[in-house]
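Subject: Sanity check before I submit

Could someone independently write out the structure tokens for this chain? I want to compare against mine line by line before I put it in a report. The sequence has 268 residues.
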Amino acid sequence: MASIEVVQSTGYQAFLEPVKESEECYTHLGDIHSTANGTFIGYIKFYPDEIRRSKGLVNEACGYLLAKTLDLPVPPYGMILILEGERLIEAHPSLKKLLAAAALYPAWVTEQVKGVPIVSSDNKAIESLKKWSSLPSLIAFDDWVLNSDRSLENLVQGRKKGQFTGIDLGHIFGGLYWDRDLLTQDWPFRRRFIEELWGGDPPLQVKYQVLEAAKQHHSAFSNIRAELDKLLSKLLDNQEDKNKLLAFLEHRASQSYDRIMKGLGVMI
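---
Independent answer below. Compare away.
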């Protein structure tokens, strides 16, 4: 069963280089060591929650667990790293105004995946992606967890032909700042990724493959529910948030087939 390791600050070996900064998320590359996964280069993503109570870390960790349970291609390792503020400030000096140097902060880490993001002008890569065997499962998964942020840019094309890895799950469950009162079953979900690939109307064969993948959601949730419960108990201060999110995911999993069938306009 998939699980999320929590690595203490001694597992952070070295800062390598900054990757991206925004008010919502700060990302850099670093050398990481953990007991379970050894030494590797990882993307360290820090979601500041001092101002708007970001749930980016919650989303990343839960999304990773669910994706691994469905055997979706995601980075081999995903973990939570506890970092001193001074180490984050070293990588991102602009955080000095937000963080205390001696305080400890959790960050999300995934192993660096070798490859390049797909760009909209790379027609050859896009055609290869459309033939990717895991694409229907990824589309169904995004529908389940409300990942409206899926795009070509958060899929990494591997060195091997036809090989892709999904990254970036910080915006699932409706976004970084979801509220339990908004986690309703009638939450509108726009399938932007399908629009990007096929103008909103994929081939009928793809629709049927997505529906087949949706049948796995309920059993996948049942298999990982206990681990999710344990993880959310650590990451969420409010247990009502945890209970509402678990109930939300379970209900969406049970309704995935019917919801997606309706959304894709498939008549069985």
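---
OP: Matches mine. For the report I'm noting this point. The chain has two domains: 5-111, 116-264.
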